[in-house]
Amino acid sequence: MNFEFVTAAQIVFGAGKASGLPGYVGKYTAPGGRVLVALGAQTGRTQALIASLKQEGFAVETLRVSGEPSVEQISSALPLARSCAVLIGLGGGAAIDTAKALAALAPNPGDPLDYLEVVGRGQPLSQSSLPWIALPTTAGAGAEVTRNAVLSVPAQGVKVSLRSPSMLARLALVDPELTYGLPPEITAAGGLDALTQLIEPFLSNAANPLTDALCRDGIRRISTALDAAYHADDPDARQQMALAALFGGLALANARLGAVHGLAGVLGGYLNAPHGALCAALLPHVLHANFLALLSRQPGNPVLARFSELAFLLSGQQDASARQGIRYLQSLVTDMGIPGLAKFGLTTADLPALAGKAQKASSMQGNPIRLAEAELIVVLENAL
Q1: What pLDDT shows up at residue 121?
Q2: pLDDT tens, position by position, 164-205
């Protein structure tokens, strides 16, 4: 058995821990040093954190992030990033990926396209990232502990990754209090994204004992906490969701994802739709397709047993079957108000081309079985 496990240089978790941000920033630059904060939706808590940095004498610049970062937006912000000593991603996955990408590109010459997969030249980043700190304000993406940033390329209708081991954060500061008061729709999409990022590594062809432990624990936490966070904004549920999302980020960074993310990446470049909502809409249908494909083509594959274990982790019922687990997920998606893909403008005419593109996505390499284009089309049809 061989595997590798990498993560942020330091992880700090707990309610109220974000208040220590100025002290952590002070490890990388003295008062007066310039700090760039890539900022998602502002709340009273995020404004207080920025004020605390200014009170300690740091020269704070803010960069508002709405929606997933594009290559053009990153290119425009690079001169500002290169003038800063420390970067902070304070927000959801988009804000964190923005800080991560800018920190990685700032010390490296040339254009972002020099370093991008698929649409660019794919060159390695030769210089290590600037120091950067992640503070997630949603419980979903797990981007605080991953070594890639997802960027959109609108001109080509795709999303691609900037990727390097040096892109891991110096600090992932995970404070559940920053997620208090999230709207139900963001709680649902983020929570189901986190659940996807625990299920796919658990079923992936690169699972390992460390990621398995994280996935099992994280799936249990979400199965009991998501409803309370969605309906009641319960503080304990928010803490469980923040921890599960962290575990999902750790798992996906050290195992692999699968067809949900392979499809969601392609759809995200084609539709104006949140990543979490896409993953949620696809999840039960991808699992059903994988289960049927394994039964028919690889009935001896040990991953099949994991489908039954997944059903138990989700439902708490020892004798739950794989099909019951998939139905449980479909009910969860429906109860959380996640719309079908047609809501975002997807039509049946779009499906063959998108399925063909998705087959080439890097996330597909982790799927427990290779799905044919026709099988992916059926997944998309069922998710409409």
Answers
A1: 79
A2: 889 999 999 999 999 999 999 999 999 999 999 999 999 999
Task: Find out whether 358 and 263 touch, Cβ atoms under 8 Å.
Answer: yes
Token pair 């992916």 in the structure block, residue: 376
Q: Indicate the pTM of the whole model.
A: 0.95
Q: 184-383: what CATH class? A: mainly alpha
DSSP state of 135: E
Q: Is 362 helix (H, G, I), strand (E, B) or coil?
A: helix
CATH 3.40.50.1970 describes domain 11-179: yes
| HSE-CB of 1 using CA atoms within 13 angstroms | 5
Cα distances from 67 to residues 275, 306, 347, in angstroms, run: 10, 35, 23
Angle (CA) 121 276 381, round 5°: 90
- Sketch the domain layout of the chain as residue ranges: 11-179, 184-383
Q: What SS3 state is found at 316?
A: coil
Give the pLDDT of residue 13. Answer: 98
